[in-house]
Amino acid sequence: MTDPSPKIIDTTAAIGELVELLTDVPNNPPSIYIDLEGINLCRHGSISIMQIFVFPRNEVYLIDVHTLGQEAFAHPAASGATLKGILEDENIQKAFFDVRNDSDALYAHFGVHLAGIQDIQLLELATRRGSRRFIHGLARCIEHDAGLTGGEARVWKGIKDNGRQLFAPERGGSYEVFDSRPLSEAIILYCAQDVRILPTLWAVYNGKLEWRWKEKIEVATRDRINVCFQAGYTGVGRHMARPPSGWA
User: Fold this and answer.
1) Gene3D superfamilies, from UniProt (predicted)?
2) Positions of E strands within 101-179
């Protein structure tokens, strides 16, 4: 597993350069893989960091949303393109793992309505052999399907555990660490490592995907994105582990 050093994007100049890069990447497979970290990540909380892995460049970019605020999404590149425009462009493919709370937070706080999204969690569910009564979380998918060697798995788990010690309340941590600046090395590594593995998971599941599932996935992904319009949506609870209607 390669380990490129993450690049912190915390100035408008850096945002402009990144946006310019993102406007000219291949679509198949997706080049852009995204994850978010924040405090109570949804409409009721806040976004601290957006992680973007650009697959063709093998680079992880950590966008400091806490510092940049609206400028992270609205500041134009030299071409006039913005990160908001890229996230809303259905012709630029972007992959998330469970887009629901990310979509809710992006729309509520920055008016970003995602499009052109592939949800890797749904790809796993569609290609799974056996029961589809419950969806699988990212950690389980990485452990079972990413093909990590024993050494890679130990490193991955160590980074995950070190990060959780800092932010997980049940371990004495606080989610406020995502808003502390400068970011600690442990948090930087935590933010960067999972998004790096998403292309591997996408390839594993997409390689097994049957055509009959494609339309179901498109509909379910659109429904997940549009939770941002549901007045009573809450991103915590047992309902989050249930599959889309008609999938079980």
Assistant:
1) Ribonuclease H-like superfamily/Ribonuclease H
2) 117-119
Distance (Å, rounded) from C-alpha 87 to C-alpha 32? Answer: 10
Residue 2 has pLDDT above 60, yes or no: no
pLDDT in tens, 207-224: 999 999 999 999 999 999
Which helix (H) or strand (E) covers residue 19, if one does? helix 12-22
CATH numbers and ranges of domains, the chain:
7-229 (3.30.420.10)
Question: Whole-angstrom Cα distance, residue 146 to residue 160?
Answer: 15
CA angle (226, 63, 184) in 5-degree steps: 120
The end-to-end CA distance of the chain, in Å, is 34
Cα–Cα dist 148/154, whole Å: 9
Assign residue 166 a region (left: φ > 0; alpha: ψ between -120 and 50; beta: otherwise).
alpha
The residue-averaged pLDDT of 4-8 equals 90
Q: What are phi and psi of 17, to 5 degrees?
A: -65, -40
What percentage of the chain's residues is helix, strand, coil (to nearest 5)? 50, 15, 35
pLDDT tens track for 86-116: 999 999 999 999 999 999 999 999 999 999 9
